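re the bet — no i am not wrong, look at it urself. input seq straight from the record:
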Amino acid sequence: MSSPDVDIDYKHNRKRQPDPLDQVKEAVERADRTISAIVYKIDPPRIYKALEKAAKEDKVDVRILVNDGLKKRYRQKLLTHGDSILEESEQPRWFRKMHSPSKELATLALTKRVEIRQWTPARLHVKLLIIDDKEVLSGSYNWTDSAAAQNAELLLRFTNRDHVKKFVKVFKGLYEREEWAKPLIR
């Protein structure tokens, strides 16, 4: 079902089209200025790579609010090492042994033009992606490998200016709550 302002897609693991993971990746690739996201956590490497590529091309500012971020011990170590840790020759042993998706999240957080905050008061159940304040993807889809592989998912795409403005307001309301949304490593 779709209209000029809202597209609604459904995916079940036996019917892989349209795949919400691909839809999220393609939306990220369409970004020209900004990407704003709220998700529980990010697993799929395709999404990390798309976000990192958008930020590295020095064209897109990325802001992400995650629930499942980094353990405190990793945040402290990353603060000490800074972005020099991104160089293979500079990576300490603890970083090389860090498991995915924590390692990808840490690498993304150290990328120029990326700011990641970790939600602290409770479980974050919002799933929201805003591209250039013009397009919104929201629905049941968690950005996790298990959701992509096993779940029946619903993904809504909004382009109506009034709807998008409301989602931007929701994003800012959560992302800018400094007492609840703590910078991941900065």
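see?? The helical segments are 20-30, 45-56, 72-81, 93-96, 102-109, 145-150, 161-175. told u. also The chain has one domain: 6-183. so pay up
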